[in-house]
Amino acid sequence: MPADWAEAAYFSKKTLQEWFADLLLRVQQLAEWTDDLETPVVLWLAGLFNPMSFLTAIMQVTSRAHQLPLDDICLKTDVRNSYSKEDFKAAEIGAYVNGFFLEGAAWEVARGDDQGYLVEMQPKVLHPELPVMHVTAIRRAEKVTTAMYECPVYVTSLRGPTYVFPASLQMESEDVPVSRWILAGVALLMSPE
Fold first, then answer.
1. CATH label of the domain that carries residue 124
2. For residue 14, is it within any domain?
3. Which of 32, 81, 131, 162 could form a disulfide with 154 if both were Cys (CB 3.0 to 4.6 A apart)?
4. How many structural domains is the chain composed of?
5. Residue 93 falls inside a structural domain
């Protein structure tokens, strides 16, 4: 991508051709959203130019609905057991989002209403896709930390300046040390190169 464009564009490590195709998908999502004037049932979060603004809006709506200070609210993420948008209806609270890819680990999909969990990376699968995630906002005091890995979410594998938010991902059990995933450099990416 030309340097002049990169200064004004969103973070990306794609070639110009891939970047342009990605840009068209983003514009298409926004056009469909504005046609209906309703949030999509499953939103491609990576397709937003500023995904953190959407997540902040989820926290603000919860804060106002329960008359809580925004500083006492944090995001809660639940990974569902489906990759298909058709399996979901509009979320009553929060939002269903997709477009996340794991780096340094894989995801074991569970059955029924059980939550899946992080597993070791599979050979030759660099960025496995994560199923649809339900993002809601809860009080910080209610946040579950047992058997959870606070996984950093980045826009690209560049990491650093592309940080968006921490997603709580279920581990197989509380016996698995969190350091296992930290040392593996496990992160969620919104745009695999």
1. 3.10.490.20
2. no
3. 162
4. 1
5. yes
